[in-house]
């Protein structure tokens, strides 16, 4: 592929200047062929400090700029994305191993985010005037100030963008710490912001591994941190932010998501929705179904048999293959090996493999889909296996299946495939998750809706359409053009 950018050795963008990192070196590897596609040095603590100061000094002018002018720059970024959409899609495919067709949908989501976030800003955090005698009462919103955005590797463009765009619309300045596995996509994204004319210091890019993340998260000069990533890291950040009520922390974390199937006449359609829920993006979506509950009856048997057969046929191949695969490589050979190990661990607990997940080349990130029956496994750890490994439970009783579906610390997405609406009503009332779907895949959430989970999946700061809420704080004002005495004074007062 033609490389789109840039000078990786100058991979930090601080106060409007590209510069090399002074911390530890790291590389980005194409997981589909093992080639090093990027290398650079992480930002050290001093560079993090300089970036925080740059963001602080840019904050006043950026937040004081009329909204229409801020939006013009944000829309110019949208235009840049439009102009470079194919380059961005190819870069995402190269760096993550994601199939090109799907990488294109990621770029489309990035572009679509802009209009949606402008609408969300106005609907969720706009200005409201309430009637009041002798004065004017307003509800307005102000930006928090300097905010850090931490991104995951699975959507290296779309998910950080889902924090950055609403944060900038609200008037915050941003310190962007991308996943160390996807520095090249991050660098290209920030280059597009620069081309769009974003003033110096409004967005700063701090590349690096965990040391850079720690230096940024622990910096006293930030007003908030918007995080999308693993539950482990999210929990660490939550502990770190304990005792700092003044800082806004938005955590979008993983899930151990259940999908229940009950009495579905259209077996092929059910299998399609299961595959789309469990295996899209090689299972690397936080919303992916991890646990599938299938009724122990003839209909359940038919669905499971067809699922195994159709999953065996899933095309897994190079992201750029002419005959496009359903999914490409996982993010790394290490992530792929971790899925093989997860499967072995579940087998050692009594899980029965129905379709074995395999990593054909240990040096690359490709894995075939796996399905494992865990009905008789006692004490299966409540873990997110972030890849294409689906655990199946056979059930007799619908309520018992829902109870088991809820038997998780997480609560991101959940779904029911069932022809009977009364079953869905029952399921909806009982299930605990932030995304609850009926007869649709549980992946592919819309940016025009709130996106977030409960329990170990989030901290009640839903993203997507509700990201506007954590990007600004409400200010209530009562205002009059001059002071005036009230018609009657309070008892005991004489003026
Ligand atoms: N709920 C949601 O919206 C989504 C959640 N995810 C979750 O993200 C995970 C996959 O992404 P990963 O990149 O593996 O997540 P991760 O937690 O490893 O990394 C996320 C970010 O945090 C940084 N980081 C890691 N440790 C840190 C520390 N101790 N202090 C400060 N920063 C630190 C990383 O460098 C990266 O920028 C999955 O668990 C998935 O479920 C992914 C997409 C959406
Ligand atoms: O953030 C948004 O705009 C909508 C949420 C979204 O895009 N969700 C995707 C991917 C997130 C993930 O699972 O990693 C989805 O639901 O498939």
From TrEMBL:
InterPro entries from the UniProt entry: Ald_DH/histidinol_DH, Ald_DH_C, Ald_DH_CS_CYS, Ald_DH_CS_GLU, Ald_DH_N, Aldehyde_DH_dom, SuccinylGlu_semiald_DH_AstD
Pathway entry: Amino-acid degradation; L-arginine degradation via AST pathway; L-glutamate and succinate from L-arginine: step 4/5
Catalytic activity: N-succinyl-L-glutamate 5-semialdehyde + NAD(+) + H2O = N-succinyl-L-glutamate + NADH + 2 H(+)
Keywords: Arginine metabolism, NAD, Oxidoreductase
Gene3D superfamilies: Aldehyde Dehydrogenase, Chain A, domain 1, Aldehyde Dehydrogenase, Chain A, domain 2
Binding site for NAD(+): 229-234
Any single Pfam family the record assigns to this protein: Aldedh
A GO molecular function held by the record: succinylglutamate-semialdehyde dehydrogenase activity
EC number(s) recorded for this UniProt protein: 1.2.1.71
Domain Aldehyde dehydrogenase per the UniProt entry, residue ranges: 18-469
Active site positions: 252, 286
GO biological process, one term: L-arginine catabolic process to succinate
Organism superkingdom: Bacteria
Functional description taken from the UniProt entry: Catalyzes the NAD-dependent reduction of succinylglutamate semialdehyde into succinylglutamate.
Family, similarity comment: Belongs to the aldehyde dehydrogenase family. AstD subfamily.
HAMAP family (UniProt xref): Aldedh_AstD
The protein, known as: N-succinylglutamate 5-semialdehyde dehydrogenase
Organism of this sequence: Shewanella amazonensis (strain ATCC BAA-1098 / SB2B)
């Amino acid at each position: 592929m033609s490389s789109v950018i840039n000078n990786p050795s100058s991979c930090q963008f601080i106060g409007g200047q590209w510069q090399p990192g002074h911390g530890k070196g790291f590389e980005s590897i194409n997981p589909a062929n093992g080639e090093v596609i990027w290398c650079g040095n992480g930002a050290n603590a001093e560079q993090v400090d300089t970036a925080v100061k740059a963001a602080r000094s840019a904050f006043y002018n950026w937040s004081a700029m009329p909204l229409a002018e801020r939006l013009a720059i944000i829309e110019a970024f949208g235009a840049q994305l439009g102009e470079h959409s194919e380059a961005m899609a190819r870069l995402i495919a190269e760096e993550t191993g994601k199939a090109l067709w799907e990488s294109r949908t990621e770029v489309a989501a990035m572009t679509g985010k802009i209009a949606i976030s402008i609408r969300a800003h106005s609907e969720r955090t706009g200005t409201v005037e309430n009637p009041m005698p002798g004065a004017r009462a307003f509800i307005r919103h102000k930006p928090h100030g300097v905010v850090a955005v931490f991104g995951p590797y699975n959507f290296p463009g779309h998910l950080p963008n889902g924090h950055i765009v609403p944060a900038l619309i609200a008037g915050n300045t941003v310190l962007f710490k991308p996943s160390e596995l996807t520095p090249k996509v991050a660098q290209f994204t920030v280059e597009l912001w620069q081309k769009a004319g974003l003033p110096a210091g409004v967005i700063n890019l701090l590349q690096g591994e965990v040391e850079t993340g720690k230096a940024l998260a622990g910096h006293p000069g930030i007003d908030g941190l918007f995080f999308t990533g693993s539950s482990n890291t999210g929990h660490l950040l939550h502990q770190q932010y304990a005792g700092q009520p003044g800082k806004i922390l938005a955590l979008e974390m993983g899930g151990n998501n259940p999908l229940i199937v009950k009495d579905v006449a259209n077996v092929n359609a059910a299998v399609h929705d299961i595959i789309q829920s469990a295996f899209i993006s090689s299972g690397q979506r936080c919303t992916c179904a991890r646990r599938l509950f299938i009724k122990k009856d003839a209909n359940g048997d038919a669905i499971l048999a067809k699922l195994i057969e159709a999953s065996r046929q899933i095309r897994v191949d190079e992201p750029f293959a002419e005959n496009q695969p359903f999914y490409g490589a996982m993010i790394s050979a290490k992530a792929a090996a971790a899925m093989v190990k997860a499967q072995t661990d579940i087998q050692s607990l009594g899980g029965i493999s129905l379709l074995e997940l395999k990593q054909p080349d240990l040096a690359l990130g490709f894995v075939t889909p796996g399905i494992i029956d865990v009905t008789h496994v006692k004490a299966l750890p409540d873990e997110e296996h972030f890849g294409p490994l689906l655990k199946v439970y056979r059930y007799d009783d619908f309520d018992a299946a829902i109870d088991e579906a809820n038997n998780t610390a997480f609560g991101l997405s959940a779904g029911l495939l069932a022809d009977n609406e009364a079953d869905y009503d029952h399921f909806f009332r009982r299930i605990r998750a932030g995304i609850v779907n009926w007869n649709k895949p549980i992946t592919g959430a819309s940016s025009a809706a709130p996106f977030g989970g409960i329990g170990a999946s989030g901290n009640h700061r839903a993203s997507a359409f509700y990201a506007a809420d954590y990007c600004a704080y409400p200010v209530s004002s009562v205002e009059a053009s001059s002071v005036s005495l009230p018609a009657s004074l309070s008892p005991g007062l004489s003026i």
